[in-house]
Amino acid sequence: MKETHQPTKRQHQLIDALITSKCDEQTILTEHKISRATYQKWLAEPAFLEQFELRRAMAHRRSRAIIAHHAHKAADRLFTLITEGKGETARKACLDIISMAGNSTSGPATPPQEDKPADSPQIPPEAAARILAALAEQNEPENDQ
Q1: What is the pTM of this model?
Q2: Would residue 67 be called left, alpha or beta, if left means φ above 0 and alpha means ψ between -120 and 50 degrees?
């Protein structure tokens, strides 16, 4: 039976850099003096890969928490763009709001539930198109009849 080992300090440093650095992968490998071949071997090691995936998942959870914390500000700003914006800006803001409503339950994949809360309805594409058309008409200058 093959013995598994914990990632080394150098491997932990590389994982940290890969998760937190704004540099591309090759730049990070060069900075840490790790060859592409060594990195490929490390990726084949279960302990390294498990630690890497754990850190990646933690970073995603942290990002989702930040987004959730500021979502109300983004929604407020989008609604402001709809009411004050003209044409394309308002249309894009509407699409973003509709998209946010559809993705409000994003997170880990879970099986569909029969009992959906009444306060988070899914907007069918036809209804979204009608909403956008109504908002576009509202933002057009009125013609004298």
Answers
A1: 0.53
A2: alpha
